[in-house]
Design goal:
Zn(2+) binds at residues 74, 77, 145. The chain is α+β, with helices and mostly antiparallel strands. It folds into two domains: 5-46, GTP Cyclohydrolase I, Chain A, domain 1, CATH 1.10.286.10; 52-181, 2-Layer Sandwich (GTP Cyclohydrolase I, domain 2), CATH 3.30.1130.10. Helix content is 41%, strand content 25%. It has helices spanning 5-18, 31-45, 98-109, 115-130, 144-147, 166-169, 171-182, and strands at 52-53, 63-74, 80-90, 95-96, 112-113, 134-143, 158-165. The strands form two sheets. Strands 5-2-3-6-7 form a five-stranded mixed beta sheet, sandwiched between helices. Strand 2 and strand 3 form a beta hairpin. Helix 1 crosses helix 2 and helix 3 (98-109) crosses helix 4 (115-130). The termini are far apart. 23% of the residues are buried.
């Protein structure tokens, strides 16, 4: 889905007018263009080559990338939510480049989202593409819709998880994952 840059610029201009701002004032006059370019950039980052490697077919232990920075936008209020993602998988003949795990998080987070959906989308994408023995995804996020509006209580983290395969069926595997993502925090 390509971004309609002209429609985006019109929408931002209307939004600024609707909240009582002058879209022609110095600080705002280029804002519609900047916002449109930002969404075009997000659109480009959602598409990436998920390169797989089959030559590492004998590796069958957990692969974990933790503390991946995540930035997304709450679809209910269009305010940011941000935090960390922890992703693990246990290969079954196929591995991916480690950067692809980070790119997967970014690809799904750069659109209006719900944290719960984002967590599941990442896990499902990895299960479908890697065909691993299992996938585990944990997101720890602060939502500005709770921090700067509504309850106005900053600093709270919302934690969601998605477990697939052996992470769901094998308690030892799940516990190892949870212990590894907590290790530095203790």
């Amino acid at each position: 889905m390509a971004v309609d840059k002209e429609k985006m610029k019109q929408a931002v201009r209307l939004f600024l007018e609707a909240i009582g701002e002058d879209p022609n004032r110095e600080g705002l006059k280029d804002t519609p263009e900047r916002v449109a370019r930002m969404w075009e950039e997000f659109d480009r980052m959602r598409d990436f080559d998920f390169k797989l490697f089959e030559e590492f077919g004998n590796y069958n232990e957990m692969v974990l990338v933790k503390d991946i920075n995540v930035y997304s936008i709450c679809e209910h209020h269009l305010l940011p939510f941000f935090g960390k993602a922890h992703i693990a998988y246990i290969p079954d003949k196929i591995v991916c480049g480690l950067s692809k795990l980070v790119r997967t998080v970014r690809a799904f987070s750069l659109s209006p989202q719900l944290q719960e959906r984002l967590t599941n989308q990442i896990a499902d994408f990895l299960m479908d593409n890697l065909k691993p023995k299992g996938v585990a995804v944990v997101l720890e996020m602060e939502h500005l819709c709770m921090s700067m509006r509504g309850v106005m209580s900053p600093g709270h983290l919302t934690v969601t998880s998605a477990l697939r395969g052996v992470f769901l069926s094998d308690m030892r595997t799940r516990e190892e994952f949870l212990k590894l993502i907590r290790k530095e925090k203790e």
